[in-house]
What does this fold into?
Amino acid sequence: MTTETSPIERIASRTAHVGGGISVDRVLPVRQRRRIGPWCFLDHAGPARFAPGQGLLVEAHPHIGLQTFTWLIEGEALHRDSLGNEQVLRPGQVNLMTAGIGISHTEESLPDQQVLHAAQLWIALPPDKRDMPPAFDHYPDLPRWTESGVESTLLAGTYAERSAPTRVHSALVCLDMYCEAGASFRLALDRRFEHGLMVLEGAATVNGEAFGVNELAYASAGRAELSLAVAAGTRLLLIGGEPPTDELTIWWNFVGSKEAIAQAQRDWEARSPRFGSVKGYEERRIAPPPLPW
Ligand code: MN
It folds into this structure.
């Protein structure tokens, strides 16, 4: 049973390449932890500086069974998808793309951009929503408040009696916290949720243990709070949700059963109308690696 003194698990990131001139730090999934609640993927991009035209470029690729969730901290990124959406994402905003039965999209820095700092996460859809129709939502305004020197933005779900408008399909939380000056505080948690607290910038001690940039502190369900001390200029990302009980395969850009993933891969390779096409990217499509099973 988890208690307030159960150890905090440390998850380190690894470098991954997603396309274009920048690399990302990938924290989820890792072998010892495939998901935290429904959060099944976490990439941290930047803060990176680059010459104009050398930023992010992820050409057309498909998704099924998940929502892609993009949080923009610095710079600008352009999303295009097979539903015809074209949306510039700016600091303080979230793009949420619901893949459901199938969608394709592209992501890129705008030509004049020279900076990017963002996080992209995936939310696994619950089994009864995996085949829902695809959708795209842009959230320019999210709940924000400042307390004890911590500027918080609620990106998804509920926290401390506040709710984000973000259209999600599981009980979860995603909270950005920025501390311009150093601060010590207790971070209240939902006892039903397991949580991950990632350092995006700066440094933090979590229940007495030091965590640096791109490290994630994992706390199992049953905790009511964490004790935090953070350095000046620290930005943290809290994610959480109910511990998953279902089986789930994550492969390439797909979430679902092995059969559903194999079918999606065949459909993408066959240019099935299931995934549509992104205007201007009809011939700039990312090919999947061979299925490992
Ligand atoms: Mn994608």
